[in-house]
Design goal:
Transmembrane segments: 12-32, 52-75, 82-100, 112-136
Distance between the termini: 17 Å
Organism: Pseudarcicella hirudinis
Protein name: DUF1761 domain-containing protein
Shape: elongated
Keywords: Membrane, Transmembrane, Transmembrane helix
Largest sheet: none
Order of helices and strands: HHHHH
InterPro entries: DUF1761 (IPR013879)
Strand content: under 5%
């Protein structure tokens, strides 16, 4: 599978990454800021914006995008229906499930709310990645 790196349309990968990262910034700071803070038990606080809280998610989004592109090309996804199936499988099977699993720990006071907010972001993100990869393949 790793040999697919040479076949990737890197412009589409970078565009999909940028879209995914920007979606995350908007998701957690604009669209769902208050519920996100509630899920963390910090509804009356300003969340920190140290570099790790920007660079870390950016790197994770890049890894998710590249891994998705490798799978996308390996599986030869070439239709919208196949891209949707891929998005739902990867979205629910890995991204949402892993997000909820991470949320279920003593440090997250509202794990289900956190899982819904963060998991739905990743599901929307993988769908967006897939559409961009498909259109630009």
């Amino acid at each position: 599978m790793i040999n697919q790196l040479a076949n990737l349309n890197w412009v589409s990968v970078l565009l999909a990454f940028a879209a995914y990262f920007i979606l995350g910034a908007l998701w957690f700071t604009l669209f769902f800021s208050k519920p996100y803070k509630i899920s963390l038990g910090r509804e009356n606080e300003t969340l920190p914006n140290k570099p790790i809280f920007i660079i870390g998610p950016a790197l994770c989004s890049l890894v998710i995008t590249i891994a998705s592109a490798i799978l996308f090309y390996t599986l030869n996804i070439s239709s919208f229906n196949a891209a949707l199936e891929f998005s739902l499988l990867i979205g629910f099977g890995f991204l949402v499930a892993n997000t909820v699993n991470i949320a279920i720990n003593p440090n997250i006071p509202r794990p289900i709310l956190y899982g819904i907010i963060s998991g739905s972001y990743h599901l929307a993100g993988i769908l967006m990645i897939s559409v961009i990869l498909l259109i630009m393949k």
